Amino acid sequence: MSDIAALQPDKQRLTEAVTQFVIDRVAERVYRPGDQLPSESELAKRLNVSKPVVREALGRLSALGIVQVQQGKPTTVKGLSVTPLDQFLRLAVRVTDNGLREAVELRRAIEVEVAALAAERATSLQLEPVEAALEKMRANIDGDFERWLQGDLAFHVALARCSGNALLEHLVNALVETIKFTQRALGMQRDLRDPAATVARHQAIVDAVKAHDPAAARIAMTTHFAVSDAVIAEIARDHRRLDRY
């Protein structure tokens, strides 16, 4: 083994150690959003590593959305970012053979619990954006499909805020592009689409949440997603038919 090859694992270990050092300090709120990190020289001296190791660690942290690195300026801590997970999910949905079905299954696993927690915890003030989004859908039942999609997305994102669970809210925000993908794919099936029935299902979710009935909210959200299964099955049949020709 060459000297360079032998040194590489050690450099990776040191880079990971510096990366974890900063992550731990952010988690412990030693470094808060907007704070400047010590300079590369200071971090290198404090952690007994080289400046290139610190630079590589900061690059990793930047890619994770934890810090902002700007040429000639101090590196600063950013707030929590869902960007890395968002990018992963966007790619995963498209490279997976059954991406649409699996994306809907993932949403169902998350959003059924979101609805139940919202029924337990949501205030009338928190529900206002949910109802506003539903009204936007209702206003575009036979109108602008893009505005309909905007209302549909806003409904699910606003409902996540009502869950009172910051991690679930972050997760739904990370899923925004994936949600758009599923909504558009299903919504484009014009012959299978029933906008009025979709609005009614969303209204049932709102009614259960306003009644503070978690069990009913779970059932309403489960029912909403169950309708997607038939549409996905029809899309799959169409693809199989096309594959024969």
What are the salient characteristics of this protein?
single chain; two-stranded antiparallel sheet; 245 residues; 11 helices; mainly alpha; elongated; Arc Repressor Mutant, subunit A; Four Helix Bundle (Hemerythrin (Met), subunit A); disordered C terminus; 2 domains
Report on the architecture of this protein.
This protein is mostly helical and 245 residues long. The chain has two domains: 3-77, Winged helix-like DNA-binding domain superfamily/Winged helix DNA-binding domain (Arc Repressor Mutant, subunit A); 83-243, Up-down Bundle (Four Helix Bundle (Hemerythrin (Met), subunit A)), CATH 1.20.120. It is 74% helix and 2% strand. It has eleven helices and two strands. It has helices spanning 3-27, 40-47, 51-63, 83-95, 99-121, 124-139, 145-161, 166-174, 176-187, 195-210, 214-243, and strands at 67-68, 76-77. The protein has a two-stranded antiparallel sheet with strand order 1-2. Strand 1 and strand 2 (76-77) form a beta hairpin. Helix 5 (99-121) packs antiparallel against helix 11 and helix 10 packs antiparallel against helix 11 (214-243). The longest helix has 30 residues, at 214-243. It is elongated. The termini are far apart. The relative contact order is 0.10. Residues 1-7 and 239-245 have low confidence and may be disordered.
